[in-house]
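Annual report, structural modelling task.

Input specification for the GMT complex:
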Amino acid sequence: MKIGITCYPTFGGSGVVATELGLALAKRGDDVHFISYAMPSRLNLLHERVHFHEVTVTSYPLFDPYPPYTLALATKMAEVAAYEKLEVLHVHYAIPHAISAHLAKQILRSKLKVITTLHGTDITLVGRDESYLPITKFGIEVSDGVTAVSTWLKEETAKNFHTEKAIDVIPNFVDGMRFKRDSSQFCHMFGAPDEKLVCHVSNFRPVKRIMDVLRVFEKTLASVPARLIMIGDGPDRSKAEAYCRQHRFHDRVFFLGNVPNLEEVLGACDLFLLPSETESFGMAALEAMASEVPVIASNAGGLPEVVSDGESGYLVKVGDVNAMAERAIEILRDPAVRKRMGKRAREVALERFDEEKIVPRYREMYERVIRA
Ligand code: GMT
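The model returned the following structure:
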């Protein structure tokens, strides 16, 4: 099959899922064409069936300060779809990708099918904003197929957009061969073989509540010698670094930025913290689980569909830093608890979210939509 994929190319979860999906489809024999303004950050595989098409927005004084990316993207999508004979354009994140894809289809007047995958903030934050709500609803409704990464997100979409559009739930997936426990190298890199390693991965936006990560860790430190690895970057990073210095535990916290080899870090960690305000799925939590790392997350959004409370970690009320710290100490103090929960976390990750099980579901959907 010839498939176009559009996503945000940054380290965000939707870009990660889109890229991993494209690579998995190419490995299984499909021709995959990524179309975006930059090479997706996880697109690190040279493969004869993987192609990248960069969208450039031609500048013109009248376009300042708002160059029309949505239109340049639509034009590139139409060009690639025509020359490469794409059958499906699968866009990740509704805004503006679903709109650009719809325009491309109109330009071509062809049988090109558009599938939109909803990831979270496109529905819960941006898409809900009055200024974007009608166009987001339109993009969803004109798509030939729509998927959501959790049941919770599917229900939120129907509720917020008052739409009866059929939405297939296809959860995110993980490659269990790549994400697995391997503590050999990373602990030593941080000079802490006898200390526990706690980890957080996100884009450091307010919705992630990274100050809660630090407060939980600070409280945990009083009982367990540990280090905190903060992966990612974003608007709340400066505030977070300042907090660690002011509270004098900055020598225990490592802000690594966006790292390409996330699996090496997760494979060595003892606990993953995800105290988000909301989370449609929690891709980083799933990758931690596959690496046998127990997860403490907020009991919010789609997280209960990923983390099983008391089994693969704990779900705690949003903002309840004390309860999260208590659970963290419980897991870190007793190696048997960490191990039991870590093993269960990997089992769940592979039973329910293994790449081998999920990728074919997208493939089946493409075929169904083409047939229709
Ligand atoms: O906020 C982020 O984490 C980035 C965002 C994105 O679209 O890039 O992530 C969303 O999509 C991920 C992949 O499906 C989900 O795992 C995240 O839960 C979701 N983020 C939120 O809902 C806040």
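Residues 12-15, 17, 93, 119-121, 149, 172, 203, 207, 278-283 surround GMT (CB under 6 Å).
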